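Please check this chain.
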Amino acid sequence: MEIKGIHHVSAITKYAQENHDFYTNVLGMRLVKKTVNQDDPSMYHLFYADAEGSAGTDFTFFEIPMLGNTYEGTNSISTTTLRVPDDEAIDFWQERLHSEELEVDPVTERFGRRMLFFRDPEGQRLGLVSDENNEGVAPGVRWESSDIPVSKAIQGLGPVYFTVPHLEPTAQVLTETLGFKQLDNESNIYRFQAGKGGTGGEIHVIADASLPKERPGQGSVHHAAFRVKDREELEQWVERVQDAGLINSGLVDRHYFQSLYFREPNHILIELATDGPGFDVDEPMDSLGEALSLPPFLENRREEIEENLKPIRQHKN
């Protein structure tokens, strides 16, 4: 049993169309699945990823139109980072994001890597991390976008940031329950590694008791998911999480992968998810995300569901 790295991050948007336009047009990611929240099919669930929808590259969004603002703070997944091929790509993205008039911080270095932090139009906290000298979890397959060179394209999820008031309870779950290795720290940012490590296998935990507790809303993150091999191994993880005394969902079949959800002591929602079967289980790889996909148990409600969803205009990259 081993966590292989980051599987996906699921965030919240108020505007599915604008969200789609930003993540496909500006960031050049591929929409690999257009579906609905399986627990509330009245809302979209959009999946952006690499060219093949690989585990470890998925950044997903639930659309909640009536959402309020996020009041940032602790007990949160506070930043999602995305991997780019090298240091030169960071410079390319700095110029591109500035041209979009986004809120962009100066290029910085953290744990020996060049990073660029910025926000999307809804205030979603994002970062780009260079894979220049990266070793560890392999990147995804870059998607060829119309105006982004493949040599600069996003190639997966980088370190996910947790912000907590106290490090110890979260560190205990990461290391003792999930098997992460605690590495080093820079000031109050602590680095944890799973699997082969590297940018695709790290969690960075910011410990800051001076902040208020976050009130999530538009532009916040719902949960982070980590990769496990298959359903058989996930069933073992269910037992381990239960033995650790963590309230959990038990095994949940999400059609594209199987999942287990639980909250760690600082109230951050964590998911363990299998690598497969993958997004091409119900549509061809070359047309992923073009039509509305529904899991089998919702298929008999397709007409009703489609009537309640506002169509999303898509473009071909």
